Amino acid sequence: MINKDTDNKLPIYKLTSKDKVLKYYDDWTKNAQFNQDMIEWEYTAPVNTVQLLDKYIHDKNIKILDAGCGSGLAGIELKKSGFTNIYGVDFSQSMLNLIPNNIYQTVELIDLNEPLKYDDNDFGAIICVGTFTYGHVKAHALDEFIRVTNKNGYICFTINEGIYTEYKFDKKINELSQNKSWEVLNLSKSSYIVNKDVEAWLCLVKKN
Ligand SMILES: C[S@@+](CC[C@H](N)C(=O)[O-])C[C@H]1O[C@@H](n2cnc3c(N)ncnc32)[C@H](O)[C@@H]1O
Q1: Cα–Cα distance for residue pair 50/78, rounded to 1 Å
Q2: Does domain 6-207 have CATH number 3.30.70.270?
Q3: Residue of 18, 29, 91 to test ligand 1 pocket, by largest number of atoms within 8 Å of CB
Q4: Which of 64, 85, 113, 140 has the highest CB neighbour number within 10 Å of its CB?
Q5: Ligand 1 center to residue 21 CA distance, Å?
Q6: Which DSSP helix (H) or strand (E) runs through 94?
Q7: How large is the C-alpha radius of gyration of the chain?
Q8: How far is the CA of 50 from the centre of ligand 1 (A)?
Q9: What is the 3-state secondary structure (H, E, C) of 76-88?
């Protein structure tokens, strides 16, 4: 297989510390440049993820956590699909500042690498788009996602193809299937940042 060298596709992929990632987003959000770039780069992950989730969820009032919601691009897609009860969390205040009104019930600053403050079984679904990527949120966060999702609830997320094995997402997904925490309904390569030639794994699971 040809090595795509995904590590070198974007400057942000080089950052490893929380402080550097936060600073990067502070700069990237000036004049809403992040949103502009996502249009120009053909960032298809929010649409792909919401379309997949929408095939499985029929109750549009289900309580959804948008984990790593950023400027709200996945929330906007969820709203377009008719979902009404969405909660946004992210660790970058400058990204949260770009969210349009009336997308989320609440928006909160939360570090997803830390234990979540939510009760067990709190959400009907979690969506996490573009946030499992270089230097961002690690695979152990999936344990917390499972804990706060209710039985038979859904978790739908992307994993940047460049970190899938390196950050051990392959092992984590397997482990959670083997120990019967969840059933994998979809795990396939999907378009992600088309103009930068970066794809992602698109995963949908159902909590047991
Ligand atoms: C590429 S953006 C994607 C944002 C949004 N989900 C979307 O699809 O447009 C990645 C987001 O992950 C957030 N993020 C990175 N590390 C995080 C962490 N440890 N906890 C919470 N959010 C984090 C960043 O602040 C950023 O908003």
Answers
A1: 6
A2: no
A3: 91
A4: 64
A5: 10
A6: helix 93-96
A7: 16
A8: 16
A9: HHHHHCCCCCEEE
Ligand 1 pocket, mutate which of 28, 47, 92, 202 (most atoms under 8 A from CB): 92
Report the alpha-carbon distance of residue 172 to residue 164 in Å, rounded. 10
Residue 69 alpha carbon, nearest atom of ligand 1: 6
CA of 107 to the centre of ligand 1 (A): 13
Question: Measured between alpha carbons, how far is 71 from 206 in angstroms, rounded to an integer?
Answer: 26
From first to last of the 208 residues of the chain, give the pLDDT tens digit.
Answer: 556 899 999 999 999 999 999 999 999 999 999 999 999 999 999 999 999 999 999 999 999 999 999 999 999 999 999 999 999 999 999 999 999 999 999 999 999 999 999 999 999 999 999 999 999 999 999 999 999 999 999 999 999 999 999 999 999 999 999 999 999 999 999 999 999 999 999 999 999 9
Give the integer Cα–Cα distance in Å for 107 and 97.
Answer: 10
Taking the complete model, does pTM exceed 0.85, yes or no?
Answer: yes
- Distance (Å) from CA 153 to ligand 1 centroid: 22
| Amino acid (1-letter code) at residue 160 | N
Tokens found for residue 88? 């946004």
